[in-house]
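Ticket opened by: R.M.
Priority: normal
Category: complex prediction / small molecule

The reporter submitted a protein together with pyridoxal-5'-phosphate and asked that the result be attached to this ticket for the collaborator who will pick it up next week. Submitted input follows.
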Amino acid sequence: MAIATNLSKIKDNLSNHVTLVAVSKTKPNSAIEEAYEVGQRIFGENRVQELVEKHASLPNNIEWHMIGHLQSKKVKHIAPFVALIHGVDTIKLLEEINKRAKQNDRIIPCLLQMHIAQEETKFGLDQEELNGLLASDSFAQMDNVTIEGLMGMATFTSDQDQVEMEFSSLKTVFDQTKKTYFSNNNRFKTISMGMSGDYKIAIDKGSTMIRVGSSIFGGR
Ligand SMILES: *Cc1c(COP(=O)(O)O)cnc(C)c1O
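Result attached by the on-call engineer:
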């Protein structure tokens, strides 16, 4: 019950250009089913093993998003079915996704993860690495991935100004990147930013996709 109520509270305040990814990591299938029953179809997980198991045991029409850090050697396990990979932050990983997508006769949608937070520990590309990747010959030859946008995580802080600044910077990078590399490509349209604690700020700053876990399913 609580899950359905939480979901509808969040969705009631979303305009229809913002997609909600329900982050179900560590939560049992029963929790996902509860959300599914009230119409939620997009779920996000951050561990390959858990993602594979849940995909195998839950309804076929769920769109599974990989939102966490992804190791190249594990791509093959999710390549047959993953709907969107949010955390691509090296050309090597993208090459592996392309290779495994091809083996599965698929095109896998990806987001490039940008490093926008102050913390050293968070993954992601800086501006120079982003340009390097998008301008590379290797990328030009990839036929089995599409870059649908950017993803970022703000610093874990109660300083709202800091969070606002980081989300704004991602929006700016997105706009510039679209202009420079994807001006004729309608696929490049997603800015994945915002979690339970900061999704309202993120939407305010231009997010088109929020990844919300604990506000839907409760704490972990
Ligand atoms: C866990 C996680 C989320 C959701 O976090 P909540 O604070 O529970 O909403 C969003 N994005 C990523 C990458 C995560 O790992």
